[in-house]
Amino acid sequence: MAYTVMMVFGTRPEAIKMAPLAQVLRQWPDVELNICSTGQHREMLQQVLKDFGLSVDEDLHVMTQNQTLNGLSQQLLEQLDATYTRIKPDIVLVHGDTTTSFIAALAAFNRQIPIGHVEAGLRTGNLKAPWPEEANRRLTGVIADLHFPPTNRARDNLLREGVVLENIEVTGNTVIDALLWMREYLNKSHWRPAPDSPLAQLRDDQRMVLITGHRRENFGQGFERICLALAELALRYPDVQFVYPVHLNPQVQKAVYGLLSHQSNILLIAPQDYQHFVWLMDRAYLILTDSGGVQEEAPALGKPLLVLRKVTERPSVLEGGTVKLVGTLTERIVKETSLLLDDADVYKRMSRVFSPYGDGHASERIAERLSRWLEENARERDDS
Ligand code: UD1
Ligand code: UDP
């Protein structure tokens, strides 16, 4: 008997992290996979689909410029409801903590369609940081039927909130599946950026600091302080190349291009596809980010990472000593980055491979548990 599994994603990180699972499920016996892109992101999602050779079955094209959370949610709820009604999936898989994730889960819940939550159980304990993601993942956790936390710590968060153990499968994080796959491809093919890529100008003999940032709670003063820190660091270290692929959110574009365009050793570039970005991470001397996914990837590549946030939902990475939470105060960012650039011993201590998020086989574990659940669920339905 074939089961219809509908996978819903809408943003760049969801697509990167669901792509390896989609590749496994496409080959899985008895599963008919239907991929629904909500299109919460447009260009940044297209890049991922191309990187992984992934085609979508449903595309809802919801993105509008400078979208609001409520405007986006309204669009998603309406369109997902119509899609579920037409496709009638046996289960809907959502990922993580975006507006797409929570609304896709809510729309399924309202139609009494079971929900599987990939990357479940991450918590900061602070509803305002990251905002709105902490609420999205908690709310999704309340209505999901099957939970796939990456670590035991994330599983324990779910248990504390009353989720029963038999509905939880600890799997590792699929981002490591994606990362290892991409890195192997880059290494095997001796991949280099094309001559017309802005990355072609990077010199092998120059240290490179890679930066990303896009958190909503950092908009305004937080972003300004981060940009001021980068401007000061660029002046202080003229021999270091700073590279910042700037997220397409207009709020981010305005702040970053407004404050950093004039500095000759800061390269501001468009968001990079996953090939280029993994190549950049692998080549970076150190990385500064407020991203969730980059917190998982940088330690797995052995890169020192400074996290531009006050709290993290990924405390496991802090235990390896290769990741430091530095917040968004200009002085602290300058101080911690300078320390890594100036002190070879500190740098060495923070550049070790540390990967608490798994071994690159998370997707297979999810597929196995999912497949057992589908059979058990069908049997229970037949019995009743
Ligand atoms: C979203 C997620 C965030 C996730 C991030 C990953 C929510 C509320 N936020 O934040 O959890 O960490 O994605 O990057 O779900 N835009 C484009 N093209 C794109 C993508 C975005 O032009 O390909 C612009 C649009 O003007 C859009 C705006 O960015 O309205 C904001 O996009 P949105 O998905 O709402 O928020 P993000 O900041 O990207
Ligand atoms: N990433 C990418 N290109 C970029 C910047 C990031 O492919 O220019 C990847 C990165 O490797 C990680 C994911 O995008 O896998 C993280 O996405 P983002 O930071 O937008 O979202 P978050 O993880 O914070 O939700």
Secondary structure elements and their pairing?
Layout: E1 3-9, H1 12-27, E2 31-37, H2 43-52, E3 58-59, H3 69-87, E4 91-95, H4 99-110, E5 115-118, H5 133-143, E6 146-148, H6 152-160, H7 174-188, E7 208-212, H8 221-236, E8 241-245, H9 250-260, E9 266-269, H10 274-283, E10 286-289, H11 293-300, E11 305-307, E12 323-325, H12 330-342, H13 344-350, H14 362-383
Parallel strand pairs: 1-2, 1-4, 2-3, 4-5, 5-6, 7-8, 7-10, 8-9, 10-11, 11-12
Helix pairs in contact: 1-2, 1-7, 1-14, 3-4, 4-5, 7-10, 8-9, 8-12
Bound molecules: uridine-diphosphate-N-acetylglucosamine and uridine-5'-diphosphate.
General description of the model:
With 384 residues, this protein is an alpha/beta fold. The protein has two domains: 3-173 and 359-383, Rossmann fold; 195-350, 3-Layer(aba) Sandwich (Rossmann fold). It is built from 14 helices and twelve strands. It has a six-stranded parallel β-sheet, with helices on both faces. Helix 3 crosses helix 4, helix 7 crosses helix 10 (274-283) and helix 8 runs parallel beside helix 9. The mean pLDDT is 96. Bound molecules: uridine-diphosphate-N-acetylglucosamine and uridine-5'-diphosphate. Uridine-5'-diphosphate is lined by residues 12-13, 16, 175, 212, 214, 245, 271-272, 274, 277, 291-294, 297.
What's this, in brief?
By secondary structure, the protein is an alpha/beta fold.
Question: Helices and strands, in N-to-C order?
Answer: EHEHEHEHEHEHHEHEHEHEHEEHHH
Secondary structure tally, helices = 14
Fraction of residues in β-strands: 5-15%
Structural class: alpha/beta
Biggest sheet: strand arrangement: 3-2-1-4-5-6
Low-confidence stretches: none
CATH class bucket of the largest domain:
Alpha Beta
Mean pLDDT: 96
Helix fraction by DSSP (H/I, runs of at least 4) = 40-55%
Task: Characterize the biggest β-sheet.
Answer: 6 strands, parallel
Distinct small molecules = uridine-diphosphate-N-acetylglucosamine, uridine-5'-diphosphate
Radius of gyration: 21 Å
Count of discrete domains? 2
Query: How many beta-strand runs?
Result: 12
Cα separation of the termini: 18 Å
Under the CATH scheme, the architecture of the largest domain is: 3-Layer(aba) Sandwich
